[in-house]
């Protein structure tokens, strides 16, 4: 996880919009290894002058494009030497509407050795389909696997460092129940309905996903 004093930067809408704009300007290429990424959620913004408690409020350092590299998660881990063990066992629930950037946010915050639970990844893993296709006949298998992993997180089973749970969770009661059950911190990935539709359109897939976006905003309670 990002240092506590800088977490509000990386979870802010301003930072996420800046990161996305820089990715577009720099052609979705990691500036370290030179690899082109179609899935831009794998690219993060790295501060050349590292953020500290003393400069975290200096906007010329925090939001200056000249101080930000666009690099892949692998290069980011190498930069911060994130291959050593750490003692933290924190749990974060990253929630918000479809196409709000939850997966990108987790890639920005997480480190090597963290556990990431994303139901979209489970669908993709066991179906072999593209990330945006979810065979309905596999639904019970997917949710069964999700519940098994949630139980591991709850009991702090295994050698993971921090855990990130990605989901919509429009129901305030449901996400607060899960927060209490897992002793987790809630992080809201803010986006408007229009922004979600714009990002959906960029994928070239609309169909039922538009209904998912509408349904989330209809059900959401702060």
Describe the protein's architecture and organization.
By secondary structure, the protein is an alpha/beta fold. The two termini are 24 Å apart. It has ten helices and six strands; from the N terminus they run ααβαβαβαβααβαβαα. A four-stranded parallel β-sheet has the order 4-5-3-6, with helices on both faces. The protein has a two-stranded antiparallel ribbon with strand order 1-2. It is 43% helix and 13% strand.
Protein structure class: alpha/beta
Q: In which range does the helix fraction lie?
A: 40-55%
Characterize the main sheet.
4 strands, parallel
Instruction: Average the pLDDT over all residues and give the rounded result.
Output: 90
- Largest beta sheet: strand ordering: 4-5-3-6
With helices defined by DSSP (H or I, 4 residues minimum), what is the helix count? 10
Tell me, what's the shape? globular
